[in-house]
Design a protein that fits this description.
The complex is a heterodimer of chains A (106) and B (598).
Chain A (H helix, E strand, L loop, with lengths): L3 H21 L3 H25 L9 H32 L13
Chain B lengths: L4 H18 L5 H24 L8 E6 L3 E5 L5 H24 L6 H20 L3 H19 L6 H32 L4 H7 L7 H18 L7 H5 L5 H10 L1 H11 L1 H4 L3 H22 L5 H21 L3 H28 L12 H4 L1 H15 L5 H16 L1 H26 L6 H5 L5 H16 L3 H4 L14 H21 L10 H4 L4 H47 L7 H21 L1
Antiparallel strand pairs in B: 1-2
Helix pairs in contact in B: 1-2, 1-4, 2-3, 2-4, 3-4, 3-10, 3-15, 3-21, 4-5, 5-6, 6-8, 8-11, 8-13, 10-11, 10-15, 11-14, 11-15, 13-14, 13-19, 14-15, 14-18, 14-19, 15-17, 15-18, 15-21, 17-19, 17-21, 18-19, 19-23
The chains are: A mainly alpha (106), B mainly alpha (598).
Chain lengths: 106, 598
């Protein structure tokens, strides 16, 4: 029997992997992918809560699932914008390595 | 009809000034005609008013603030203001006519006549005002127009400086005057003369307050009537055209101070200390100015200092609590001093604007009418018996003899000095041999200039006789002492004149050289030093505040503070995205910690 705890562990591991990717990788595309991973980890935990928090009517809590759809939509929009910026940045700098993008430093 | 006469007197010159300024600046002859017509209209209306009594002109409320502060625009028509109206508009008319000749070819003729009209408006306003606020407004207007008139030849630095000096010096006195008005209003709740006087007895329990108020009001007169220590502007004001000198120094501006003092005499006389101060200020002015006059070389400056001296006499009379004597002397002085100035102007014009008396001489032959009229004025000024000055000066001296012996002695000494410097002037200018080419070749002035001289000479001769003066004035009452005083005055007069004649007959340069008097007791130097010093002091304080507080503190502090914070904050910008994210994550953790566990 899969419990809520199992889902949350998986979700936490996904989040940790995403966070580690964001923190450790230097390639912007990978960082962006890791960000998506973190978002989806959050989605997973939300859906798990929805599934395990059954209403008195016997149905799961759909509010949470609607919330998840919103997050997916926002994430799609974010990826579109992020990738566009990334393409523009690559055209300007011929690189996607964050080490080379430090012109805001004094 | 009669009730609007005061309005015509007042508004005639104003309309003339407005019309000239707005429409006829290009047509000089028309401008002068308008101005002369306006002042003659005022004079005729003044005569009509004088001949009638019981005129009650319409008034209106000018300012009203919730019943606390009420200023009507109204007129006072008593014997005093009626006489002053006659003197001001009469002498003013003569000076307007004389100006037609004096200023005939001037570039700024229209401007001159516009300012002259405005001056007459302001001066007549002072005479007619029935409350302090109105008086003060016209008072300032006189100050302003005198500035314009003295600075008529503004392209000459001396004239521009003299105009500024006159304006600023009188403003100093006016500030005190304003404070005095406010004190009186505060204490009595009214600015109208006729309402103040019945409320004043309630104030006698506060003598200090009353004395300060009276002295502050006197400050205004000190500025306008050029009393010590604010007398310095008057002699410099000679830089203006000569008719202006006559107008300002004889009948109007300087007389305004004395007139105002007499108008508010009920306030001043309530305070014995104020009276004493005023009397002594007048006396000091009289003797100082007379001393300075004995050593001046400019014909107009000598007359200016004699004006100061005579004003000192008037203020002395006010201080001795005799309005009659003060106004009597003002009345005769208006005639003979206007006469002297206009005659001096005639000399100056005929000598192509030469004002140094040592370049003149022997003018009695080439300028006979000017000589005779000038002599009449001079004799009146020194108080020679048949002429008007004798009676009025004698009245003041008799008063001083009766009430304050030290003042009497100084007054007598001043009379001696007056005789001395006037005779010096007369002897040097009109007798002996001509001392320069222009003096040799001069001729007599045109009729438009000699006419007013003759009229004024007649007035200066008649003005003192009781049968003439009593028609206009309440003359001071003759006392027992008055038999002894004129005898002394005449002895002093003969002594002074004799000394001057003996000393200056057939001289070509001044045998007396008293540097202290030539430099006018170093008043100008002293004031220059004082102003320099205070200005330097204030400038140093301002420089310190500006340099160290504003520049270094406020401006410099803001910029270096911003720089410093910036230098600190840019250490955070390491340029490593992961480091930012790490800090961001730490921040989130901290936020969660504080929101949930605290």
């Amino acid at each position: 029997m899969v419990t809520l705890g199992d889902y949350l562990i998986v979700s936490g591991m996904l989040f940790a992997i995403g966070f580690a990717g964001v923190m450790l990788r230097r390639n912007l595309i990978i960082i962006l992918m890791s960000l998506e991973l973190m978002l989806n980890a959050a989605n997973l935990s939300l859906v798990a809560f929805s599934r395990f928090r059954v209403q008195p009517t016997g149905l799961p809590d759909y509010n949470v699932q609607v919330f998840v759809f919103f997050i997916i939509t926002v994430a799609a929009a974010e990826v579109a914008v992020g990738l566009a910026i990334l393409v523009a940045l690559f055209r300007a700098r011929q690189t996607t390595d964050v080490k080379d993008i430090s012109s805001l430093k004094f | 009809m009669n009730s609007i006469l005061p309005w015509i007197i007042l508004l005639g010159p104003l309309l003339s000034a407005v019309a000239i300024t707005l429409f006829t600046l290009r047509w000089k002859a028309l401008s002068s005609f308008i101005s002369v017509a306006a002042v003659l209209l005022s004079f005729v209306c003044s005569c009509l008013i004088f001949s009638q009594s019981g005129i009650s002109p319409p008034e209106f409320t000018w300012i009203e603030l919730g019943g606390v502060f009420k200023v009507p625009f109204g007129f006072v028509l008593d014997g005093l203001s009626k006489t002053m109206l006659l003197v001001v508009s009469g002498v003013g008319s003569l000076i307007h006519i004389y100006s037609l000749g004096y200023i005939r070819d001037d570039k700024g003729k229209s401007r001159y006549f516009a300012a002259l009209s405005l001056f007459m408006f302001a001066m007549l306003g002072i005479v007619l005002a029935n409350n302090f606020v109105m008086l003060f407004v016209f008072w300032e207007l006189v100050g302003f127009t005198s500035y314009v008139l003295i600075g008529h030849w503004f392209y000459r630095d001396a004239a521009a400086d003299a105009a500024k000096k006159a304006f600023i010096t009188t403003r100093i006195g006016d500030f005190g005057f304003m404070l005095g008005i406010l004190m009186i209003w505060m204490a009595t709740g009214s600015v109208i003369f006729s309402e103040i006087s019945p409320r004043l007895p309630a104030l006698t329990s506060h003598p200090a307050f009353l004395t300060i108020a009276a002295l502050l009001i006197f400050c205004g007169a000190v500025g306008k009537s050029a009393q010590f220590p604010l007398h310095v502007w008057l002699a410099d004001a000679m830089e203006g055209p000569t008719p202006i000198s006559a107008l300002i120094h004889a009948a109007t501006m300087v007389a305004a101070g004395v007139y105002m003092l007499v108008r508010v005499a009920f306030i001043i006389q309530a305070s014995p200390i104020a009276l004493l101060v005023i009397a002594w200020i007048g006396t000091i002015t009289a003797v100082l100015a007379a001393l300075v006059a004995t050593q001046q070389d400019d014909i107009k400056r000598i007359l200016a200092y004699s004006t100061l001296s005579q004003l000192g006499y008037m203020v002395m009379a006010v201080g001795l609590a005799s309005n009659e004597a003060a106004i009597f002397h003002l009345f005769t002085h208006a005639f003979f001093k206007a006469l002297l100035f206009l005659a001096a102007g005639s000399v100056i014009v005929m000598l192509h604007h030469e004002q140094n008396i040592w370049k003149m001489g022997g003018l009695s032959r080439s300028l006979p009418i000017t000589f005779v009229t000038f002599s009449v004025g001079a004799l009146a000024l020194i108080g020679c018996p048949p002429f008007s000055g004798f009676f009025s000066k004698d009245a003041i001296l008799a008063l001083a003899y009766e009430r304050n012996t030290p003042i009497f002695v100084v007054g007598l000494f001043t009379a001696f000095l007056t005789a001395f410097y006037v005779m010096r002037l007369l002897v040097i200018v009109f007798f002996g041999k001509p001392r320069s080419e222009v003096a040799r070749e001069s001729g007599e002035s045109p009729l438009v200039m000699t006419g007013p001289l003759i009229v004024l000479a007649l007035l200066a001769t008649l003005g003192g006789f009781a049968f003439f003066a009593r028609k206009f004035l309440a003359l001071p009452i003759e006392k027992e002492a008055a038999i002894f005083v004129p005898a002394l005055a005449i002895i002093v007069l003969i002594l002074g004149s004799g000394l001057a004649i003996a000393l200056y007959r057939n001289r070509t340069s001044d045998p007396l050289q008293v540097e202290l008097l030539r430099r006018k007791f170093y008043f100008d130097e002293f004031y220059r030093w004082l102003i320099d010093w205070t200005q330097e002091f204030l400038a140093r304080i301002s420089a310190f505040v500006d340099r160290w507080i504003i520049d270094a503190g406020v401006v410099g502090g803001t910029s270096s503070g911003t720089w410093g914070i910036g230098a600190l904050l840019r250490l955070v910008q390491v340029g490593n995205l992961q480091a930012y994210l790490f800090l961001f994550g730490l921040g989130i953790v901290a936020l969660i910690y504080f929101t949930i566990f605290r």
